[in-house]
Amino acid sequence: MLEPQFESALAHRATPENLSISMREITERGMIDLRGLATDKKFMAAVKSVLGFDLPKAPRTSSTWGDLKALWLSPDQWLILCTRSKTAALLAELNSALGKIHSLAVDVSDMRSIIRLDGEGVRETLMKGSSLDLISDDYKAGTVRRMRFAEIAALLHVVEDNVIDLYVFRSYAEYSWAFLLKAARKGSEVKLFKK
Amino acid sequence: MLVVTCPVCDASGDETDFHYGGQAHVKRPATTDPVNITDEEQRDYLFIRHNPKGLHFERWRCDRGCGKWFHAARDTMTLEFKATYGITELPPVELMKEAKGPWAEFFKKRLKEKA
Amino acid sequence: MSKNPYRLSNGGARIDRARKVTFSFDGKDVSGFAGDTLASAVLASGQKVFGRSFKYHRPRGLVGLGSEEMNALIGVGEGNKHEPNLRATQIEIFEGLSAESQNRWPSLKYDIGAINSKFSRFIPAGFYYKTFMWPKSFWKHVYEPFIRKAAGLGKAPEGRDPDTYEHMHIHADVIIVGGGIAGLAAAEAAASTGVKVLLCDENPVLGGIADLTAGMIDGECVVDYADAAALRLAALPNVHILTRTTVVGHYHHNYLMAFERVGDHDPAILASGAPKHRLWKIRANKVVVATGALERPIAFANNDRPNIILASAVRGMIGRYGVTPGSTGVVFTNNDDAYLTAFALKNAGVNVRVVDSRARADGALVKRAMADGIDVQLSSVISAVEGTLGVTAVKIAAYRKGQGRVITEKKVDCDFIAMSGGWNPALHIWCHNGGKIQFDDGLQSFRPKSHTDNIVAIGAANGTMSVEATLLEAQGLAKKAKKFKVEEPVRGALESLWFAPATGKYNEGNKHFIDFQNDVTAADLELAQREGYESIEHTKRYTTFGMATDQGKTSNLNGLGVLSEATGKTIPEIGVTTFRPPYTPYSFGSIAGALTGELFLPVRRTPIFKWHTDHGAVFEPVGQWRRSYTYPQASEDKHQAINREILCVRNKVGMLDASTLGKIEIKGPDAAEFLDRMYTNTFSTLKVGKCRYGLMMNELGFLTDDGVTVRLADDHFLMHTTSGGADRISAWLEEWLQTEWTQYKVFVTPVTEQWAQFAVAGPHARDVLSKLVPDFDISNEAFQHMSFKQGHLGGTPVRVFRISFSGELSYEVATPANFGQGLWNALMEAGDEFGLSAYGTEALHVLRAEKGYIVVGDESDGTVTPIDVGMEGMVSKKKADFIGKRSLEQSFLKSPNRKQLVGLLTEDPTEVLPDGAYAVAVVKDKPPMEMIGQVTSSYMSPTLGRSIAMALIQNGRARMGEVISFPLEGGKVMKATITDTVFYDKEGGRLHA
Known about the structure:
A: five-stranded antiparallel beta sheet, 10 strands, globular, C: 25 helices
């Protein structure tokens, strides 16, 4: 056997039924955790030379270029999203462009599980487990926020108005999935300030 | 459940999204002079803390957010956050002046240095 | 006679007479109408007794109209759906509802516990404390079971609750607590400014007691105004309305908790998938307390008899449900408001008279009553009540304020009493987070004074009893105040009446109940006072006054009034007890929310979790992880399985899922220097590609973590931490970088979950790896102990560390988590011919104990230094500073009298010392004995064929060969010899094989 066998955290979970929104695991995405100083012009330039766009500097924002995305995590940390099969090559390119520049780029494609939530009511569904005001204007498409979700740490990426990707550490994937199955159950919808 | 706002990333959230890190501006003697530290100095560094009724200065971390540490000036009676400021910074001058008791003593020297 | 003799032939704004609803109460069918509460439907049927009281088991009826009801507590639903202690006044009936009264046996009419009432002279305030004191053994076997059976309210449901519950968060600019006239007007005012408004009300219908309030607003009667306002608000996009939702608590920074009864009133809602209850967690910029006021009862003799009801509740029963408590009533009051009840009764054709304690009462309503021909007796009180399961007559006596006992009484037949002692602003929400209150002479009650939060009280909650003034206060929420034209009756002054005298004082044959729910009488309070309980908080605890679900809603002021008269102090001098959340009880289900069953606690699963489950693993929790403890096969017990796994590692080869180990990447020009600060030993001297075991202390000099760190490149390290320490240590590193050594150029990225990691350990470990054709040299020479390789194994990308926690030839193989299961399977297959089998954490622990390796958290407990565990050699003498160094230099941490880690061999090799057993200096018959240490790890070693243990023993290293004693439970004493901690392969040859 010379081919690595791929098995995601939620591979054994059946497609959910009887939900008010749709949810599925995204497995085809690669992730690179990139550390560097936003104030370091050389770092920013080197990264841009590889990605083709500037890393977002504003807190909780993201940038997109083709199939690449950069999510702001901290003034010195970003999560770069790419096609899973291209991750190793992208990481090598980044490391070669960064050279001796103070930075740390790590392939973390398997560290988190991504759950794609889609449909009207995704925000309210998440608000059953998050104290953030996800229906407010602070959470427009493109927004990224780390948060406490149910009883675990999670990262939220608003992809479109009604599409949200929830990133959780892989070991908590089953817990998050089970929580969402309960929260998104048909008949339990809550509409906030909507007529 | 307090609401905390991180001065680094400007995110507000419940205190459970943050981590409380005890009293601010505690100096670690070993960092500057690891050799000549008396037992008393080490004791004070490890254990002696202020417990004011009113204005207090604390360390917090944006635990679930940007991960950065910061300082906060908080009233322990009303629980109001008077200011947040960088983890390597001193509080705003007016708060250093407002501080009472051991904090007033602590900031007296810093205020002189600033003046 | 009709089945519902007390249902009036018309009226009842809340009920739909076209829709009949049948339900069961105490096993009997009762019929009502859609819109009825259980209280109104049962009262209509003629039943007056709803329950028995807590202590004396006195028959009790309805008192209130809503959440203030303290007597009529009902159990609803059966079996695992049962919910106890619901207020009959809040239970909305539906077809098939099954309810039962509580705290009675065998029936409401005949209750054996009522004998307590006969002995009530012997059950005064504090009787638990006085009576059940001795003998001690009686408490457990006699007193407690008796008290538990006799007292207490409803019974707990049986079995697992099949319903679902959830939490929900919401943010609003303004939250309005209470949807009465004040709340509705405030919501409209606030909404007009465009901000987000959340309006919560505990009732199914907005409007509060608008329907029980006299007056006209802009030409509409008050209730029509309220209904219209509710409709306007429902149409606004910036207003969110929650009905059947009680705001139960107000907390710091305007955080509020509200309890929504989503599906209690309609089984169809539950069936559709909705939760039974929802707990709202609310954050608001501004809180508006519009919680209204609660009518207070009057303390008169036997004022707890069934069918003695608050005047407003009687008015509500007639107006909302078309139900009257009886055919002849007496309104007993000290204020004008209750006259509205007299009018309502008269209009409904019920005989009514008014007994008013005031000498002077000349308000508009009093005059109107007199003009209408209602018999109004001023300067009078009810001095006695006749009847037990209801009211048959009252005695009316002349009264002047302050009079201690009455002289002459006149008996009047009646079958119910409507009482009103005035109104108390509902201050609970105002007070939960420290709001200050003040006594108001006009109300003879407390009202809000000041608050440090952004919170206001308006309307009756603020002590503002007129409609016009209430609407005016609500306009404070608007940018531009709206004007209203209000007509309402002018009220005369109230006169406090804290104790309506009888022919005797206090407990002389009569009971003046203050706290109905806790069976506290005026006499109890007076007794507490005489016994020296001067503080109101002490009186509360001694008498149980104002406790439990009532939280002083109806009892508080009357109690203070009695104490005021008993002591001659003013009410403000006596003070109030603390109002604590919740305002009304809310269900355990709602508190748990969705976090039940598999969500009770977050469980972390490794990439191999399913394989472990499929292969019969027994799991153990390690932090939130579930790790395989052992894998018992067909006929094995756990012990046999563990022994097999250990011997497999020692003799063949075993594989452990070590994915939970903490992994942190550390990179930067100052990374090596930084690690030298963090670890007790030195990492700047570590060569690239090599591994080193490190110890970490906290600043106190105590062990906090350990693990192997590998140098990936000159400026790049990969640190391993304990499984439990992964998050803590990465946060710890960040903290020092951000707060102390800010000049260091170092980045720290935790990568624990990126990797699945397995230990392949045993004499055949290399053979197993070789079978998967590594693309790197794994010969003993090329890949030595404590070194690192990166490459592929069976085509899968891997990082391999030759490190060992078992003392055997061992490799830790890491691969990206999603390849983990594939690689695990491949290794299992490759190892088959060498007898490879999976081993769990217990085998791991025995293997390491045989080698004397410590586990931070077993051998250390947060007060143990590296010197204590015999690792002084790993504490650098050369480094100027590292975390914990200075503390470790304190003389008492170097004392030889500290406990030191040693090995133990029991006298009887077949006996295993209990974990944690204490060693003593001298064994005595019974404690106390001088304790000299304790066992930290103890196992039966299959490798050595005998038991082994490690222990922390005072001055242990100087006591090698000494036999020490461990007294155990039951008088047994085990003896063991102190030895070195390494029991197996002391030379360590197997590691390098």
